[in-house]
Design a protein that fits this description.
homodimer, 229 residues, mainly alpha, Arc Repressor Mutant, subunit A, 11 helices, flat, DNA-binding
DNA sequence: GATTTATATAGTACAAAGTACGATAATGAT
DNA sequence: ATCATTATCGTACTTTGTACTATATAAATC
């Protein structure tokens, strides 16, 4: 009954983080406790604290491991497609880890992958001819849209999972909410995942709008040296 | 030392919720514990459970009380200005209650104020001539942008509050992040709250884009009867 | 006014979770 | 073979939500 002590190299910081991700993915954020994580790793709770100062720091690392998954835009690529791909990647990854946004919101120390992502996006904008000010606007607007959309994806999904359609109908009272009823109807009969199309549509809008913020000098016609640092 | 029992009408559900909001506003979400709330209300912890089944339900009510604060678009107003005002209101209210987004994310039962808000927005879109499908796109895109922007507002502010500029500079390593350095510089020297302008800019973009989704029939020229249910 | 009933407030106590502190065992160094 | 280092772990304390039960107060009835 008394398990022998785990071998000396059972753990690494990496394994702790990966285990935490697995637990959160499989059983949700509220199931990610130090004790559960220890069990999952075949180890006793206090062993984890050799690799992580406290749970907050574990969550910091967890969030940054999600940022690592985002597609990094290539500085020499075409800005519009690079940003579009990064945006799609962010939405995909975030919806695959529905717990991620909740943790991101409470982080106060941006991790290296997060910072690298910012740098890469800003570099793309810079090379595309955005001034610092234009880039500030463009990035804030695009990120707001992308993370906001992912937020809605996640919230919608969690409602669907936790609350049955019948339960919802009861709570909503369709007599007083005819438009909402229409909309629900529309979504029920819509194709597989109707928000995918909506996301693309809004992404085009955002990129179109952002494009207008560029300096009107067509930087692509300039010699690349003049554009470089 | 032993306080006498609190008088019989010390509490109401309303007072519990208002007290919870005050606590969260003043000391943050993590300070909102049942015990702290009880002290704040001059009452013992278990008394709260006479008005609220559990803490989850309290959070449900808390979130819905925030939705109540959002400006309700007027069905007979001009769609663009109504939606713009609602959007500004959402951002303002959410940034005034930085804890709200975190709770919203984990709710699975939309409250009445939430539903009424949806209904009002959809009604405005309907009267403006949006088909159900167009309204679905428009609403999802606009909400993604607005909540996403508020999310960034909140995250940025919490980083600023919890992490000193010096601390940040140390963690960021500006040698490897020149663009990020430029951007930080720009924000430091920018006017009072530079994101306000960015929000308005993106809002115009979103509303412009959404406008293109309308049916091209100019519904405003139709007799209102033909447009009514 | 006295008695009964309903209910709002509260006391006690337990479980779950983070983690401080110190012990112990496994590895490498001398 | 001894020692130093350090990865793993046991114990125990604190904080939090809250189940269960008790009690006091207001309302209702006689």
């Amino acid at each position: 009954m008394t398990t022998p002590r785990a071998p000396r190299n059972s753990l690494t910081r990496e394994r702790v983080i990966v285990g935490a991700r697995a637990l959160a993915d499989a059983r949700g954020l509220e199931a990610l406790t130090i004790r559960a994580l220890a069990t999952h790793l075949g180890v006793k709770p206090m062993s984890i604290y050799h690799y992580v100062a406290n749970k907050e720091q574990l969550l910091d690392a967890l969030v940054d491991s999600v940022f690592e998954e985002f597609h990094l835009p290539q500085p020499d690529g075409e800005w519009r497609s690079e940003l579009a791909n990064r945006s799609r990647s962010v939405r995909d990854v975030v919806t695959q880890h529905p717990w991620a946004l909740a943790i991101m919101e409470t982080r106060t120390h941006p991790g290296p992958a997060n910072l690298n992502g910012h740098e890469a996006v800003l570099e793309v904008l810079h090379r595309a001819g955005f001034t610092v000010e234009a880039a500030a606007h463009a990035y804030a607007i695009l990120d707001a849209y992308v993370f906001g959309f992912a937020l809605q994806d996640v919230m919608l999904r969690s409602i669907q999972l936790d609350t049955s359609a019948a339960e919802l109908r009861e709570e909503i009272d369709l007599r007083n909410h005819p438009r909402l009823g229409e909309m629900a109807e529309f979504y029920v009969h819509a194709s597989s995942y109707p928000l995918d199309g909506t996301f693309e549509l809004g992404l085009e809008l955002a990129l179109d709008g952002i494009g207008q913020l560029r300096t009107h000098i067509d930087t692509e016609s300039l010699p690349s040296k003049a554009d470089a640092e």
